[in-house]
Amino acid sequence: MRLLLDTQVALWWLTGNKRLTKPIRAVIAESDCYLSVASVWEVAIKHRLGKLPVAPQVFRDEMAAAGATMLPIADMHAIATSGLEISHGDPFDRLLLATARIEHLILLTADAALLVQGGPDVMKAD
């Protein structure tokens, strides 16, 4: 399976958060996992605002060390956000969903709004 980890799931994976069940951890371990630069950007913003203790470069480096492939943001990912038929207001989540669709990945998320509106491109993470 080819998974795009959303930012929250990636953070949970790195920190061993119990919200990721053993079956989901097994899916992650057995899959090709990708991390969008959008997630690194989101962590950078939240770190600067004091909402996350992890620095963006540490997040990026630890995700790479854990085996995730970094996925750059491409113009086609940004353009695809305009065609999403979901009302999700978070621009990072919209970009991640669009990226998953363009790159033929499954977005692994715990975001209820994405799970409801994301369709077959989205998988529940908790």
Automatic annotation (TrEMBL):
- Matches recorded under InterPro entries: PIN-like_dom_sf, PIN_dom, PIN_Sll0205, TA_system_RNase
Q: In which domain of life is the source organism classified?
A: Bacteria
Q: Which organism is it from?
A: Candidatus Methylophosphatis roskildensis
**Taxonomic lineage from the root:** Bacteria, Pseudomonadati, Pseudomonadota, Betaproteobacteria, Nitrosomonadales
Its transmembrane ranges are none
Specify the PIN domain's residue ranges: 4-113
Q: Name one Pfam family in it.
A: PIN
Protein name per its UniProtKB record: Type II toxin-antitoxin system VapC family toxin
